[in-house]
Specification:
By secondary structure, the protein is an alpha/beta fold. The chain has a single domain, classed as Alpha-Beta Barrel (TIM Barrel). The protein has helices at residues 29-41, 62-73, 103-117, 136-148, 162-171, 191-200, 219-222, 224-233, 237-246, 261-268, 277-285, and strands at 3-6, 9-12, 16-17, 46-48, 82-87, 89-92, 96-99, 122-127, 152-158, 176-182, 203-207. The chain has a 7-stranded parallel β-sheet with strand order 3-4-5-8-9-10-11, covered by helices on one side.
Length: 286
């Protein structure tokens, strides 16, 4: 498995997003654990989660606990696995989503995540989404304090625009290491953020890189060129999609979600797919 860098840490060039294992339509615990173990078997050493990945407020933190238990039960070496989580989103009864970007809440959320993950320091802690009711300076100031206190090894942000990314990095004293934004063939408006991360030399983590849980399987039918390139190489359009993203910058680390061992194994194999310049140009235009 090829590697890329988050801060000073080498991680697999393809990560895994844990969200599908904990929200509506989630698999049973046995299948979920098998999927995480399959990712580790495939050489994936970067797993992304969030405290809000749950059905609703009643099982808040479900995904963090699931991933922590699955990694702990894995038979192989996991010392090089970096688990990233996020805080700042909340869940409501009935499965709704809300925001709380206050410094007090983010610090409380981090403490709860530390306990669920069973660690003294979180590898990468990310502010999940800007809260319109709270200045970014306050939210990112909480990340700065968590860094200074040693509660987190690295700080990241999610769903930020270029100006906000620059502001966050300034507040963090130049210690921002990752930006996690939506990016896929059907959602390309985060190109400016990707390009800025490339210029800054920090990781860009596309979430829903295959188009989202309900549409990942339709990628080839919705974007025919990805299917055509896949057929030429004898691989899935989903694998082509991830290889296309990897080619955009050495700082891109896609984090496809998965609920089955076979799908995460297919995603992991994208690191070995070499696309031609002509194919990449065609995919860019599709």
């Amino acid at each position: 498995m090829r590697t890329r860098r988050i801060g000073d840490t080498q991680v697999s060039a393809i990560g895994m997003g844990g969200m599908p294992l904990s929200i509506e339509g989630k698999p049973d615990e046995q299948q979920a654990t098998a999927t995480i173990h399959a990712a580790l078997d495939a050489g994936i050493t970067f797993i992304d989660t969030a405290d809000a990945y749950s059905l609703d407020d009643s099982d808040f933190g479900h995904n963090e606990t699931l991933i922590a238990n699955a990694v702990a039960s894995y038979g192989g070496d996991t010392s090089n696995v970096l688990i990233a989580t996020k805080g700042g989103h909340t869940r409501t009864p009935g499965g709704g989503w809300a925001l709380n970007g206050s410094a007090e809440y983010i610090k409380q959320a981090c403490e709860a995540s530390l306990k669920r993950l069973g660690v003294e320091t979180i590898g990468l802690y990310q502010f999940h989404r800007p809260d319109p009711a709270v200045p970014i300076a306050e939210s990112c100031g909480a990340l700065r304090d968590l860094l200074d206190e040693g509660k987190i090894q690295y700080a990241g942000i999610s769903n930020f625009n270029p100006a906000e990314i620059k502001q966050a990095n300034e507040i963090l004293g130049g210690r921002l290491v990752a930006v996690q934004n939506q990016f896929s063939p059907s959602f390309r408006s985060s190109e400016p953020e990707l390009e800025l991360c490339h210029e800054m030399g920090i990781a860009f983590l596309p979430w829903s890189p295959l188009g989202g849980i309900s549409k990942a399987g339709e990628l080839g039918s919705r974007f025919a060129k990805f299917a055509e390139v896949g057929a030429a190489h004898g691989v899935s359009p989903q694998r082509v999609c991830l290889a296309w993203m990897l080619a955009k910058s050495p700082h891109v680390i896609p984090i496809p979600g998965s609920s089955r061992p076979a799908s995460i194994q297919d995603s992991a194999a994208a690191v070995d797919l070499a696309l031609t310049e002509g194919e990449l140009a065609q995919l860019d235009k599709s």
